[in-house]
Every structure is written in structure tokens, then in C-alpha cells.
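Side project, low priority. Logging it here so it doesn't get lost.
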Amino acid sequence: MGCGGGANEALGRVPSGGGANGLRGACPERSPAGGRGGPAGTGMGLPAALRDQVAAVHRGSALPERLRLYDGWAARYEQDVAALEYRAPHLAAASLSFAFPAPRAEARLLDVGCGTGLVARELHRRGFRCLHGVDGSAGMLEQARSTGLYQELRLCVLGTEPLPAPAEHYDAVTVVGALGEGQVSSTVLPELLRVTKPGGFLCLTTRSNPSNLRYKAELEAAMGQLERSGAWQKLLAQEVEYWERATTEEESTQGTGYISGVVYIYQKCPVPHLEEG
């Protein structure tokens, strides 16, 4: 299958002044219980081993140790995040799809921090076919490769090395789950923009639980600074109450047993034309 930049012309037709209201309804906040109130259980019913695993990867350990933890988690990762009722891949893909103009099949997407391929599955269901992925964990990449959904997979530790792609290469870039306390620094945003085509989209997520609020504030400050500089425009910032099950009572959102999160969609501003003379 060819992986051309066929969506580039379509990207240019997205209004530059639509704002977040243009995507209202892209990311439904329906609860996992089907929208009929909060879920009956709490995250405290999760197995102790799973709670310990989640705590370990988010505690801000040194990078080699964190990568070792993800390598060791890779084989059972999808089973564990299913138990957590982790909704970010579905919500992010739905929001990006809502913003993204047709056609999708030839659009080139980069899934940063791709893990085992959960985001790729959701994107593929929505018509995206040219998917590239990068992750810092070789174990996670092995699982992603087994899905057969990626045209290209590369080992890359975001924040310590550049993304393995030329400038303005992708029609869209996703970072789902990697932007958080003890994970990837918010200083990576310019590198994500570098590899995105003018007029292309960036879909980012982070959590809104208490232990991630400092990071979220730093991330949103960095996002705002880039928007004020004219680098990109915010199309969506959608808070979602039922993001995943909480692993401690302290992290639970208002006693629901879940933590909340947010999906952001940005569009990279086109390079301005230089007037001759």
C-alpha cells in the first residue's frame, strides 16, 4: 500500500478560524456504565499487582528503569489496560477523525509512544491506513509489530532524541498516554510540530488526576505559548470524566472510582507566504 501525502490538499480546506466549537461533540463524555450515572465499582477493586505496576511506571524513575518496566509489561499490557477500562485510544481517535478531512486512507500518521498499537487499532477502524509508530520500549514495539497495522515502526525515546522523520512529513501526529508526570516532558511539543505538515493535526492527551495536575498545567502553558506565537491553533480541549479506573482512592474523581483526562486537537498553522519585493 502506498503511503503518499494524498491528504495534504484536503488539509488545506479546514477553516483556520473554526475554534473548539467546531468540534463540539467529537469526544463524548458518556460514562462506561452507558451514560446512566456513575459506575458501580471503584478502581480499588483492581488487583494489587496492577495497581503496583501503574504506580511504578508513573513514579518518575530514571529512564532506563522506566523502559525496563515497560518492556516487562508489554506482554500483558493490553489485558491490564482493559481491566483499567482505559478509554484514551478510543477517545483520541474519535476526536482526530472528527477533525480530519477525507480522504483518510492515504494520509500519513505518526503514532508517538505507540505502545502495543491500541491507538492504531482505533485509527484503522476509522479509515486511516498509513500508520507509522515510535516508542522507547523494544518490548512494546514487538507487540505493536504483531498487529500488522503499522507500515513503519522505529525505536525512539522521545525527549532524548529527535523523532526519526524529516520536517513536515506527517498529516497528523498522535501522542496518547505518554504526556504525563514521570513520562514525557512537555518540552517535546516543538519536535512534534517539526514533523507535522503545515495544516496538519496533532492529537494529544493527558490525565487530570491529582498527581498529574502540575504536569497538566505545565503542558497547557506550553501549548498556550505555542498558540500565541502562531505555531498552531487549538481546535478542541475536551475534558472526559471517565478516563480510566483509579488505582487509589486519592486519585479518584469525586469518589467515582475513575480518573479524568483531556483530549486536545491542534492544527499546525500554514507557513505564511512571503511577499515578493
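Brief comment: The radius of gyration is 18 Å.
Revisit when time allows.
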